[in-house]
Automatic annotation (TrEMBL):
Entry GO MF terms: ATP binding
All residue ranges annotated as the Saccharopine dehydrogenase-like C-terminal domain in the record: 143-396
InterPro entries: NAD(P)-bd_dom_sf, Sacchrp_dh-like_C, Sacchrp_dh_NADP-bd
Domain called Saccharopine dehydrogenase NADP binding: residue spans: 3-138
Protein's name according to its UniProt entry: ATP-binding protein
Record lineage: Bacteria, Bacillati, Actinomycetota, Actinomycetes, Propionibacteriales
Superkingdom of this protein's organism: Bacteria
Organism: Nocardioides marmoriginsengisoli
UniProt KW keywords: ATP-binding, Nucleotide-binding
Length: 408
């Protein structure tokens, strides 16, 4: 297996640090628009890693780099605005493809908070038959959320539940970032560009009797009590791939995604939207054309650098309700908790990007060993969950299961 990793940012850097401890691949080419960043990442690792420059907005550039290095698998670790050029470039090169976030959505032009427009992943699913006919695999949404949460959905359906009412992804944390004087500061632990995209777009919900529909941002607030000391966090509806992926492969009555943002973060996002600073359309400022969202992302701390000043834990998980295999009501939370200080000490990468990056590494190892195989555009739910969860644990990062009081 020869892997082209597109993106040497926070997640890309964590991906290489995790992969360097495994032996399932022959080579990884770390490619970034900033070649110095790619060279720095490769230089800290062994001889299997090399660096290259790439323009991720050009499918032709992706194809050319794949052919130059004999790439078999393209791993997309950049903002999803670049998904389609990387996706198309991998296909043209005859390579398989993985990403952690799917092609972007476009709100419904007349009723954005009621009806779906172009949904996450629609552009990729539109060519699924071409990928399948070519015998190529595009494993989409293979991060932590989406990704591990979708693996949990498959596991719950196969091993825990006879009937599923709701697959509810719930994400929360108690992370705190401080300045040099120890004062808490606002510093997102993940890509601000992506966070703005998913939090300000109309959230999508799926119901068996209704299909996919949307609501206003930050709708249906609820307090969810997260495990391992994180505690209660208010979560709200956010647009996310799980809702678009899970119902395609797992039988359920409802699918949702709720994110524990907190009042401060929600207020900041609302202000950005009010001022138009969430826009990706370029504006001219003193003779220079810039995207307001790019500016916001640029002035905030780089998520890859906040690890040393961050404390706490992050939790990704899936809350499943319905009937257990015994026919009785059941409510189960399947989760994965990562402590920032632990992974900073072990890997030198902060917990949010590390938790995202470990899952595609596990998936690639399963593909390399033939445990997972397939063709077409597939989500993590399309594969057996047990080998994934076993290997995740073998990597030294076990998952958890918590039984909750059944509802109703």
């Amino acid at each position: 297996m020869k892997i082209l990793l597109v993106g040497a940012g926070g997640v890309g850097g964590a991906f290489t640090a995790i992969a360097a401890r495994r032996d399932f691949f022959e080579a990884i080419v770390i490619a970034d628009y900033d070649e110095a960043k790619a060279q720095h990442a490769a230089g800290a690792l062994d001889e299997r890693f090399t660096a290259a420059k790439i323009d991720a907005s050009s499918a032709e550039a992706v194809t050319a780099l794949c052919r130059e290095h004999g790439i078999t698998h393209v791993m997309n670790a950049v903002d999803p605005v670049f998904n389609m050029p990387i996706f198309d470039g991998a296909f043209a090169a005859g390579a398989d493809y993985l990403d952690m976030a799917m092609s972007l959505s476009k709100p419904h032009p007349e009723a954005p908070y009621e009806k779906v427009g172009v949904m996450l992943g629609d552009e990729q699913f539109a060519v699924a038959e071409e990928w399948e006919a070519a015998g190529r695999l595009a494993l989409v949404g293979m991060g932590v959320e989406p990704g591990l949460s979708d693996v949990f959905a498959r596991y719950a359906a196969d091993h825990l539940f006879s009937e599923i009412d709701e697959l509810g992804t719930r994400d929360g944390a108690n992370l705190v970032v401080t300045d040099d004087d120890g004062n808490e500061i606002f510093a997102p632990s993940f890509s601000m560009w992506t966070t703005i995209e998913e939090c300000l777009n109309p959230p999508v919900i799926w119901e068996k009797e209704r299909g996919w529909f949307t609501t206003p941002p930050f709708s249906e607030p609820e307090v969810f009590d997260f495990p391992e000391g994180i505690g209660p966090v208010e979560c709200v509806n956010v647009e996310h791939e799980e809702v678009l992926l899970m119902p395609r492969w797992v039988d359920c009555k409802r699918a949702t995604f709720k994110y524990g943002l907190g009042d401060e973060f929600i207020t900041i996002l609302k202000v950005l939207h009010t001022l138009g600073l969430d826009s990706t359309e370029k504006v001219r400022v003193k003779g220079v054309e810039v995207s307001p969202r790019d500016v916001v992302a640029a002035v905030l701390p780089d998520p890859a650098t906040v690890g040393p000043r961050m404390k706490g834990k992050t939790c990704a998980g899936l809350w499943v309700t319905g009937k257990g295999k015994d026919g009785e009501k059941r409510s189960t939370y399947l989760y994965h908790v990562v402590d920032n200080e632990t992974v900073m000490a072990d890997y030198g990468h902060q917990c949010v990007v590390w938790q995202t990056a470990i899952n595609p590494v596990v998936a690639l190892e399963l593909i390399a060993t033939g445990v997972w195989s397939g063709a077409g555009v597939l989500g993590p739910e399309a594969f057996d969950a047990v080998p994934f969860l076993d290997l995740l644990t073998a990597y030294g990062s076990p998952w958890g299961q918590q039984e909750l009081a059944p509802q109703g």
